Amino acid sequence: MTDTKQQLSPSNGAALVLLSGGQDSTTCLFWALKQFDSVRALCCAYGQRHAQEVEIARSIAAKADVPFQALDASVISRLADNALTNHDLEMDQQQPAGSYPNTFVPGRNLFFLTFAAVIARSHGISNLVTGVSQADFSGYPDCRDTFIRAANVTLNLAMDEHFQIHTPLMWRNKAEVWALADELGVFDLVRNETLTCYNGIKAEGCGHCPACKLRNEGLLTYLKQKK
Ligand code: ZN
Fold this sequence. Notes:
The chain has eight helices and five strands. It has helices spanning 23-35, 52-64, 75-79, 108-122, 145-159, 174-183, 187-193, 210-226, and strands at residues 14-18, 38-45, 68-72, 127-129, 164-166.
């Protein structure tokens, strides 16, 4: 769970990046390319509103020139209702008092990390990279650092392995994630080619869903700071 190159071993080895095709995971993909000798991308498709996420993730992986795998993880959306997979539900715009917004998909990141670890293990990869952030986590409990640390221990115990989960965005707000993309030389790619919007509109998105608001406010803040 490091986010600087200095903290990694001299032989950085290989990493598997969880890539959804959004701003965060795309930034993580290019971060990983700077950190590790070889990188693969895994997209867990779980019946989101927008199957095009997989195609966008695939095209980003192609641009980054890394092997790409899409995994059918749709079982997650059949376990419980949420507004990302059930088109009949109106998305909560913010966290309701005392509960989570209905865009929360219970267990999602635990499933994703478990799938990623099993696949990484089959490729002899011990580094896993995920774009979760506690700074801008939309109220989701499985984006928190404590969860990631616990999951890391659990995966190691479950498979008797030494996985290391890297969360380069954990303590960055959205403006700082834009800054990182810029540092990595992929600001325009992230701005124009990724899909973060819950309504399935690439780049700037619909502008009014919770994901767009977070992304676009962060972008405005970053562009203002940059001036
Ligand atoms: Zn949107």
